[in-house]
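It is worth pausing here to work through a concrete case rather than discussing structure prediction in the abstract. The textbook approach is simple: state the sequence, then state the predicted structure, then interpret. We follow exactly that order.
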Amino acid sequence: LNPIKNKINFREFKVKTKPVAYSKLLSITGKEKQEYTSEWVLPFSKKAITVSSLSGSEIAILTPIFAKEMLTVNDFVRIFGLVFKHLVDKNKPATMEQWLKTINYQDVNHIYFALYKASFESTNYIPFLCNKCHNTELNKYDISEMYTLGNDSTKSLVESLLNSDTTSKSTVEEKFVQISENYAVTLRQPSIYTMNFENRVLYNNDNMLKYATIISIISFITNIYVINRQTNELIAVDTQPVQNDIRKTVKNKFRVYYKIISSLSSEEFQILNGAVDKLAAANNDIQITYHIPEHKCSRCGTVLPKENIENPMSLVFMRHQLTLLAD
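Step two, the predicted structure:
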């Protein structure tokens, strides 16, 4: 596990205390270390991504954030800011926020596994402690042994996506639904930005919990339109965004949309709610799970069962600590 293959004897080296610019020292150290890149799938967003490996210091920055019970908007800015930094995509949007608006919320864990894959794919060592004889072992596994594709349709989807272009698409699939004589909406699966940024702002206020159903519905709405039959136009309702202020922007949007949704009759509300429920149930056949493989103790033969991993970032942190534990 030690990445240093050629250790030096410090007694044989003289120390030059006068500093030299790093750019000039590259002639001695060679070129700057190239980042390893790897591809993985975001199945709910119907795309693949290429990401580069995290550095040790970046993993150290993320570790205390993921140790928290409840993450804040600022925590998500740090997390996905690093993700966006490591996204290798010549067509990626200009900002992290714009990119997150194109990614399905259900793909969060797949992004985290992509980071693990890029960072440790070639050094995928897993530690084991036998619960019977207390023997400790360190095994290396192929990265494909860390996940399970639950059905044939998922296997076909993953294969197709891994063979596709990993650059960002310029559009996101939306569906128009008329919900009343006066209003229509565009619906899409909630994005990471919606769920981890906008909704986190709303739920930061305990008084908003009573609006949970409406907030859930709004999560699927990209726009509400007024139907103008005289001009055959759909006019988007202004949600009064405030530049560089996500909290005011989100609260203004909720205030406007809540007023419109609250004006719907029972039948009209059910049209909207039914369309959202149908969209929420889509892609239920996608089954990708992550795990630590089953292991048989070499000393006593005890079989340690496969351990499911709910959050693949835990694999990143475990593997990051492994060199220290091995020493």
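Step three, interpretation. The mean pLDDT is 91. The chain has eleven helices and 13 strands.
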